[in-house]
Amino acid sequence: MRGTAIPAAAHPSPDVLVLGGGLIGLVTAWRAAGRGLAVTVVDPEPGGGAARVAAGMLAAVTELHYGEETLLELNLASAARYPDFVAELEDATGLETGYRACGTLAVALDADDRAHLRELHALQQRCGLESQWLTGRECRRLEPMLAPSVRGGARVDGDHQIDPRRLATALLDACERAGVAFHRSRALRLLTSRDRALGATLEDGTELHAGQTVLALGSHSGTLEGLPPEVAPPVRPVKGQVLRLRMPPATRHGAFLSRTVRAVVRGGPLYLVPREDGELVVGATSEELGWDTTVTAGGVYELLRDAHELVPGVTELPLAETRAGLRPGSPDNAPLLGPTTLAGLHLATGHYRHGVLLTPVTGEVLAELLTTGALPEPARPFTPQRFASSRPRALQEQPV
Ligand code: GLY
Fold first, then answer.
1. Is residue 284 within 6 Å of ligand 1 at its C-beta?
2. Ligand 1 center to residue 353 CA distance, Å?
3. Does residue 399 form part of some domain?
């Protein structure tokens, strides 16, 4: 239901304190507020973070990897929720999210790429997913800007896209309309008693107490002071550099690109995501460089070189923006969702390559957990407890 956004007064002692106002924190807050809980979000810049960088592919099928079949179930569950989720969010706010049911074409440039893509296609079929093998000529018929060297591809009509910046803006607005309070400051320290989480101290000196605290700080989730080592999530930053170009308006001969195009070039995944408003997102590097978010000449060069091999016309386009962000990587590339062994502390982090895709299902399962105490089925394989036995003993034995 649309209404006028009213800034919510900070709840002095909310039911739920969400640390982190990225997509995951915002959707958790929105869904929890929708279930009648008083929610406060802590973030110096809500709606910022990885949402400002991510391309927004909803690529459950084309971003499938061997050994990640359990994660596939969660990814598919979230992808299936997207149309209703977007409709509800757009209806609640009157804002558009840039959701586009455009499908994806994964292509191969040489014989090695083709063999690799054939394997992926076979895996997709074994998993019962919709994916159609095309010749190079059939790929170019769909997307005439593709290079003549394209050798074949897999057409996946179910992998769509959304604009993560618009999604973040809409979620922020929806939160405000739902009465979520915001503290525009950084969470400094988790407050705990001997056996439970009590809230957090913020950089501006505020102390917030809450019955339940959700840690949704993306790649920073493991670094919050005061986190007992045995519940600190094993997430690490994985840098991604991304370019934004401007495409010419579509003519009667068609659009520059009409769907997301992906490839593996020189062993690295490359994608071009065309938005309806003319933006073309080209990503992404994958770099294990700690907290570094520098956009490098080498990163931009590699993305443009590989994109040019795939779609030669890209180098004619205006380059509008370059940016780097940090994916919250986890040891098994899957998120950590649910309660920790510290009462009152829940995790919603470690979404790695699928944060945008997993936004709807994360909001839903966290809201259910926060209201009933039970983690619903789709999230059960992703509880933080799966890493408990692999923690170094010294860490496990540190006192709270
Ligand atoms: N899911 C796209 C990326 O992580 O680069």
1. yes
2. 4
3. no
Q: Residue 277's domain is classified under what CATH number? A: 3.30.9.10
Does 353 contact ligand 1 (Cβ within 6 A)?
A: yes
Q: What is the distance in A from the centroid of ligand 1 to the CA of 65?
A: 13
State the Cα–Cα distance between residues 169 and 21, nearest whole angstrom. Answer: 11
Q: Which residue has the tokens 């409709």?
A: 87
- Residue closest via CA to ligand 1's atom 2 equals 353
Residues 24-50 pLDDT 10s: 999 999 999 999 999 999 999 999 999
Distance CA 318, CA 129 (A): 36
- Closest residue CA from atom 5 of ligand 1: 284
Cα 399 versus chain centre, distance: 33
Please state the atom number of ligand 1 nearest to the C-alpha of residue 352: 4
> With b meaning 16 or more CB within 10 Å and e meaning fewer, what string describes 358-368?
bbbbbbbbbbb
Q: Which two tokens mark 231?
A: 């519940």
> Which atom of ligand 1 lies closest to the CA of 269?
5
Q: Do 323 and 335 share a domain, yes or no?
A: no
Phi, psi for residue 41 in degrees, rounded to 5: -110, 135
The DSSP symbol for 196 reads B
Domain that holds residue 125: 104-157+237-329
Q: Is the pLDDT of residue 397 over 60?
A: no
What's the CATH code of the domain at 214?
3.50.50.60
Instruction: Tell whether ligand 1 has an atom less than 6 A from the beta carbon of residue 238.
Output: no
Examine the domain organization and report whether 17 and 152 are in the same domain. no
Whether 242 lines ligand 1, by a CB cut-off of 6 Å, is no
- 398 falls in which pLDDT band (50, 70, 90)? very low
CA 233 – CA 215 distance, rounded (Å): 9
- The predicted-structure confidence for 50-87, as pLDDT tens digits, reads as follows 999 999 999 999 999 999 999 999 999 999 999 999 99
Pocket test for ligand 1, best of 71, 219, 271 (most atoms within 8 A of CB): 271
Residue from 147, 146, 154, 165 nearest 258 by CA: 146
- Quote the DSSP letter at residue 386: G
Residue 326 CB less than 6 A away from ligand 1: no
